[in-house]
Specification:
mainly alpha, about 0% strand, disordered N terminus, 2 strands, about 60% helix
């Protein structure tokens, strides 16, 4: 019987030691926390927490079953830097036999002297949490110690003073306990308090210091205290584990913090504490490490998962993180989770989260949908700003301005978004039809904020409406706010040039000498831009825009190779009928050429490039432009650069003759043209587009083309009449009167007719 008891006792000792050392090794590997032996008394200062042994983290203790619990069971691992007081030789059962004399009959080892007074005290006061922690601690220190079946049966401490000290400890009155110990040592020579009481007091005071340091955000101190007192880091005191994990993260050791959370989820079993652990971790850790933690989730026993109750909140947090980091792609499941919440719970905040996420990830269609939903539920600066950014990107600045006006002063970002909308709105081509109220409120905000881009665009807008004096004021205002704004300086120069303010132009050219080529070359007819649609200059313009030609400039005519420019005549390439007089507008002058046998219809594809070029010019003289277009197309295959230039030039003229200005612009780009030819074609194309726009009653667009043409060549009288009727139809009566009066002063009857139409439009009698 004794032999059996001895065998069981030895097995218990060995099992306890093996489990304790295994728990320590696993924790060290999981958390990466450095350990030192207690005998060393030197603590590593690397910020790592020492590994621990065993913690007891089970349901409330069954006093009757305590005696049946032995170390061979598998309790949860905890953090402790103490090793069981068992010799290393006892790693195997054979070590027990080696530790006993070979000749003697094995005898049971004397039972360790264990101070169980704390057990009785906690049991008598019903403090089950401390009772369980104390049992776990004693088991770790004494693997062969068996907890008493009834802690209350432990003989009561007859030392009333010591009992009072335990009372102070239980109530957390640690300073008073220290004083009581010191007073008794002074009164009773040789009296020493129980080592257990002192150890527990040290731990309690360390915990208080750690909590205080954590509350004060002294995170390095938190890590140091945790490293020095690893017995604090157990599942029975989860708050300390949370605080240490946070301290690691706040001191840029996120991996160690993650390890602490992983340890909790792998070893601690309280459902509420596990849930809170994930919540706390999600507030401190980025998206990807959180996915590793969530992988440790367990079923809740009801067919669900234990973190389902906070899954929507987690999804919101992850989507918000994706809003801050455009490179982060959140899993579709989380996006769907927030979408369901937005649709079922109807919170504007959820729609906002989705809107910003999709905007950051360049999914404007989805972003617009959620921003509009957010504004419908609760209009806010954030929702309006997001929607405005999408509208600006979608070339809808007018709606963006309207959306953001209410929130323009809500924040710096809101102001910046509103001003961006105004700049984009004023830069639209053709110009937007804006009411006086909108123009006034934008102008007031631009002046208040001293916003140069929109001020500059106001200048171009005024030019498009032929209000040069207003344009000059805006360009000058922009330059006062930003003296080095070259586009504003260029706008001011060409507007002064339009008003024949030569002195003002010269002054701008002097100030910008060596800094702007296009300002220096203002007035030269040397366009370098591609032939075609020529928008007004803008802040991003890099291609030089040429100024007006000298007053004596005439349309240039370039003969075909080996021909002389004889019998020159003007051809009318377009005719426009409007509410004023019928006017023939000449766009290009070309020289007459001999027929040279091109009257017969043949397939131009059969000709070589040189013959096709000659036939094209011949067909133009016969006023057969559609056939000429085909001939010039064949001529474009010529290997000679000059022949290809002539072919591109001729084809452009042919397209202009049939009123296809856009095709003419495309044809002109098929081969490099001389500056003279490029200027001639650009002037002709802009005039043709102005006539087409007027025929479609797009009067503002007509003015735009006329302004662009006027930058290249002085406006002819017939085009001035066209401009006057644009003003008349736009009810800009003062401008119309100014134009018609100027035309009438030249003796042109169309000017007098325009003045008469103006009087009729303003209900005045012709004789007045």
């Amino acid at each position: 019987m004794k032999s059996s008891l001895l065998t069981i006792s030895a097995a218990v000792v060995v099992a306890g030691f093996v489990i304790a050392t295994k728990g320590r090794g696993n924790l060290e590997e999981g958390l990466g926390l450095a350990a030192q032996n207690r005998q060393d008394s030197q603590v590593s200062q690397t910020g790592s927490i020492k590994p621990v042994d065993i913690a007891f983290n089970s349901p409330p203790l069954d006093m009757k079953a305590v005696s049946d619990r032995i170390q061979a069971t598998a309790p949860s691992a905890v953090l402790s830097d103490t090793s069981p007081p068992v010799q290393a030789a006892s790693d195997t059962p054979n070590a027990v036999a080696q530790a006993t004399p070979q000749s003697a009959t094995p005898q049971p080892a004397p039972p360790p002297k264990v101070d169980e007074s704390a057990l009785r005290y906690f049991a008598s006061h019903g403090d089950k949490a401390r009772l369980q922690a104390e049992i776990s601690r004693l088991q770790a220190l004494y693997p062969d110690w068996v907890p008493p079946a009834d802690p209350l049966a432990i003989p009561q401490n007859s030392d009333k003073q010591l009992e009072a000290m335990w009372q102070l400890y239980s109530e957390g009155r640690y300073a008073e306990l220290r004083k009581a110990i010191a007073d008794r040592q002074a009164a009773e020579t040789g009296w020493q308090p129980p080592a257990d009481l002192l150890e527990r007091l040290d731990i309690a005071e360390a915990r208080a210091r750690l909590v205080n340091a954590s509350d004060l955000k002294q995170y390095a101190t938190v890590v140091d205290i945790g490293a020095n007192t690893p017995s604090l880091l157990t599942c029975s005191d989860i708050d300390i584990l949370w605080r240490v994990a946070e301290a690691f993260i706040k001191t840029n050791r996120s991996t160690r913090g993650q390890d602490a959370y992983v340890y909790i989820l792998k070893n601690c079993v309280n459902p509420q504490e596990r849930l809170a652990t994930v919540q706390k971790a999600s507030a401190l850790m980025p998206y990807q490490p959180m996915q590793d933690l969530l992988a440790l989730e367990k079923p809740d026993g009801n067919g669900e998962r234990e973190f389902d109750s906070i899954r929507t909140d987690l999804a919101r947090r992850f989507v918000a993180e994706g809003n801050d980091d455009p490179k982060l792609s959140v899993a579709p499941d989380y996006i769907s989770q927030v979408e369901r919440a937005a649709e079922t719970q109807g919170l504007a905040s959820d729609a906002l989260l989705l809107g910003w996420y999709h905007l950051r990830h360049q999914n404007n269609g989805e972003a617009e949908k959620w921003f509009r939903m957010a504004r419908a539920k609760d209009d806010s600066a954030s929702a309006s700003q997001g929607l405005a950014l999408i509208l600006i990107d979608d070339h809808k600045p007018q709606e963006a301005e309207d959306v953001m006006y209410r929130w323009r002063n809500e924040s710096k970002d809101a102001t910046a978004t509103y001003l961006a909308a105004t700049a984009n709105l004023m830069a639209l081509q053709p110009p937007a039809n804006l009411s006086e109220d909108v123009l006034s409120r934008m102008a007031a905000e631009v002046i208040e904020q001293k916003y140069v881009p929109t001020a500059q665009e106001f200048g171009w807008y005024a030019r498009s409406l032929n209000q040069p004096q207003t344009a000059i004021r805006w360009f000058e205002t922009a330059l006062r706010w930003k003296p080095d704004d070259e586009p504003s300086a260029y706008g001011l120069a060409i507007t002064r040039n339009q008003l024949n303010d030569r002195q003002g132009v010269a002054e701008i050219q002097r100030l910008w000498a060596g800094r702007s080529e296009r300002i220096a070359r203002l007035g030269e007819v040397t366009p370098q831009a591609p032939i075609g649609y020529a928008p007004l200059p803008s802040p991003n313009q890099t291609t030089p825009q040429m100024g007006a030609a000298p007053t004596n400039a005439q349309p240039l005519a370039t003969p075909a190779p080996s021909e002389t420019n004889v019998n020159t005549r003007q051809r009318t390439t377009a005719r426009v009928v409007y509410s004023g007089p019928e006017t023939q507008v000449t766009t290009v002058r070309r020289g007459a050429r001999g027929l040279r046998g091109c009257s017969a219809t043949i397939n131009a594809q059969r000709l070589d490039p040189a013959d096709a070029l000659s036939r094209g010019w011949c067909l133009m003289d016969l006023n057969r432009p559609m056939e000429a277009i085909e001939a010039f197309e064949v001529a474009l295959n010529s290997p000679a650069g000059k022949a290809r230039e002539d072919a591109a030039y001729g084809q452009s003229l042919a397209y202009l003759r049939v009123g296809l200005a856009n095709n003419a612009a495309v044809a002109a780009a098929k081969a490099p043209l001389s500056r003279q030819r490029a200027a001639e074609l650009q002037v002709a194309i802009l005039a043709d587009r102005a006539l087409t726009a007027f025929s479609a009653k797009r009067y503002q667009e007509t003015l735009l083309y006329l302004d662009q043409r006027a930058q290249l060549q002085q406006e002819r009288v017939d085009l001035m009449v066209l401009r006057g009727y644009c003003y008349l139809n736009l009810k800009m009566y003062d401008d119309a009167e100014r134009i018609f009066t100027a035309v009438a002063a030249t003796g042109n009857k169309d000017g007098n007719r325009g003045l008469n139409d103006l009087r009729l439009a303003t209900h005045a009698k012709p004789g007045d």
